[in-house]
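ugh ok fine here u go
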Amino acid sequence: MKTIGAIALLLAGSLAAAAQTPSPAAQPAKPNAIQPAKPAAKRPAAAAPRQVYDGMSNAERAAIQSDLIWSGDYNGLANGEFGDRSIDAVKSFQKSSGGKATGVLNVQERVQLAELSKSRQAAAGWKMVGDAATGARLGLPTKIVPQTADSRIGSRWQSARGEAQVETFRINAPDTTLAAVFEQQRKEPANRKVEYNVLKPDSFVISGLQGLKKFYVRAGVQNNDVRGITILYDQAMEGVMDPIVIAMSSAFVPFPAQEVVAVAPARRKVDYGTGIVVSAAGDIVTDRATTEDCNVITVAGFGNAERVAEDKDSALALIRLNGARNLAPLALGGGGARGAEVTLVGIADPQAQDGRRAVTTVKARIAGSDGTRPLEPVPAPGFSGAAAIDGEARFAGLVELKSRVVAGPVNGAGQAALTDAAAVRRFLNAQKVETASGNARVDDAKAAAVRVICVRK
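structure:
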């Protein structure tokens, strides 16, 4: 039995920015006196990679693994189980991109990795599809294998000249066993040379050479029903296809649920976001979801705050510090963003910067024109409520981070959208908050940014 098939796809990092302490003025040395060496200031110890990833959600870890597959640095499953193999893959990416191999991605590296993954998926035409012939769900590089046809026991996709082929198969006779299909796939067709194979109770993988081509087979079983995928491609294509095959393997779902129930991720007991000071009286605007159902809201460095208003439509919340001093409100004047390119100014989650609270900036673009105003790439956790500043030093709006609803297999990181400047001003005007007009430079936004901490039961 001949089958040809496919395999598929499936981080937030550390920003070690320690403040430097000015050294005390040097004292004149006494003649012939030996001056005792001053002990070096201790720098906070960076969290171990395992601790950083353990603090992330499973979806965040799986998204990093998925992107590392597409970068060519990881050849395992994107299942969120982040061990030494995944950490080594992060180090490999950091080395190849000219960074320090810490094993934990900082904000810029996470953005760079996501952008690389996205561009390679787009180049391959990556798409998740359901196979009517077998009932399986798989990821396909549709630009590489655009031609489709039925096969004897499944479906087939291939390139115009047959350099790459993907084929699904299903065997569900009453006496079918996974072990029997495994042995059959190892031996047929006769020109297969197996280089790797593993049989588990519910699945198997086989790979190697088939004539002058590379092949990969993955299959799973449920009762007496075996469903699988085979990928076959010229050895000259291995530089392009090898990461795609890993991605296909990770994305292959032989028995997707008939009814997938969408489940919103559980709220964190301690949530971190960014707030922007908008008045010297202690008014701070931030993301509504970050401050929802909090027992205590704290603004780092200033103390507790109260949540005084929210607006579900604009996803905004207003919190207030009482008796705060030394606040630097951001000017919110002007019309709104001119152009799609903006700079986001926020404070990443402490897990992304070794427990610190440094204000950082990342570049982003407003990708949509349909009113939803999505931001790409998605910034790091903690940037909910961050300010967006356009290229003409105008306040463009506030960042809203949304956790993706998990349905079935882990489907990656969250989404980001921009609540535009006009909506922010309307919300604050309705709360009778007097804001400053004028331009808003990136440095002004840095001075106005504060970390908002929500503690829930």
